[in-house]
Design goal:
Strand 8 (about 255) and strand 9 (about 260) form a beta hairpin. Helices cover about 45% and strands about 20% of the residues. The protein has 13 helices and ten strands. The protein has a single domain, classed as Alkaline Phosphatase, subunit A. The chain is globular. The strands form two sheets. Strands 1-3-10-7-2-6-4-5 form an eight-stranded mixed sheet, sandwiched between helices. By secondary structure, the chain is α/β, with parallel strands linked by helices.
Length: about 280
């Protein structure tokens, strides 16, 4: 464990009185899959997730397939404002982890931490910029374990850019709908061990029309529907495998005025997110 990363992630957990950090995702996924943890990670495997997986899988059984859905900018504030929508995700998943983010609470900084377990000071993205990360990431861990991984995301978004130069595959799309459809094709036609699918529409629309505009809320509801789709599809297609489906946003947001929203501040609206885990045992 990297002590600098651990201390920086702990600082935000202490500030927001949370048990979990967004930096815990990568070590948790590595633990349940038996993959090596990135060297710069300061996150902690979530015992609740690991114990639940071990009970479901039995003995030395490990997770075999992982699907991570990343809806941008949907934070704990949206769980409070739109419980009828976000509780659909919670009911499907079963495990809800209120997690603290990192500063600045912007997309490349946060996803850099989510998929490396490293704090911004360590992974090196400390502002809104999209350099290729040089630290080890979850994608390096999957490749080191001999697993096949792919990222599906809108062209030139943060996830599409900062995790390049790994021994994985990349699919760059023009729309969230295309990303969702490509993810389904990958599930149906190919044998991936790790699929990451990203949606940008809620974040984009909230910046330009407001956090709670009709357009933004429609995009939020679409993210929930995509998660429902991925739950159904992973059960259908990966049914024989021990599998995990994760809802993993990067940050929340807050209004500037009625027609625009933003994020990046050290405030609960931006810094608190919920990660949801849906773990299922394969039907052998």
């Amino acid at each position: 464990m990297n002590e600098t990363s651990f201390a920086e992630l702990k600082k935000y957990k202490d500030q927001y009185n949370t048990d979990y950090s967004i930096g815990d995702l990568t070590p948790t996924v590595c633990e349940i899959n038996d993959w090596p943890v990135p060297a710069q990670s300061g996150g902690t495997p979530v015992a609740m997730v690991v114990d639940h997986a071990q009970r479901l899988f039995g003995g030395e059984g490990k997770n075999e397939k992982t699907f991570i859905y990343c809806p941008d900018a949907i934070g704990d504030i949206h769980y409070k404002h739109y419980p009828e929508e976000l509780k659909k995700v919670e009911r499907l998943a079963g495990i809800k982890l209120l997690s603290s983010g990192v500063m600045p609470s912007v997309t490349p900084v946060c996803f850099g931490t989510i998929f490396s377990g490293a704090s911004p000071q360590v992974h090196g993205i400390t502002q809104y910029a999209k350099p290729v990360l040089t630290v080890e990431t979850l994608f390096d861990s999957a490749a080191a374990a001999g697993k096949k991984a792919v990222i599906v995301s809108v062209n030139t978004c943060s996830i599409d850019m900062i995790f390049r130069k790994r021994k994985i595959e990349y699919i760059s799309t023009r729309t969230d709908a295309s990303s969702r459809d490509f993810a389904e094709k990958l599930l149906r036609w190919y044998d991936y061990d790790l699929i990451v699918c990203y949606s940008t529409d809620y974040d984009h629309l909230s910046h330009h029309t407001g956090c709670d505009s009709e357009e933004s809320v429609t995009a939020l509801k679409t993210c929930v529907r995509y998660f429902e789709d991925f739950a159904r599809l992973t059960d259908e297609i990966w049914g024989k495998y021990n599998r995990t489906l994760i809802w993993a946003p990067d940050h929340g947001n807050h209004p500037v005025d009625e027609k625009s929203g933003t994020h990046g501040a050290n405030v609960p609206e931006d810094m608190l997110v919920n990660h949801f885990y849906r773990i299922k045992a394969g039907e052998k």
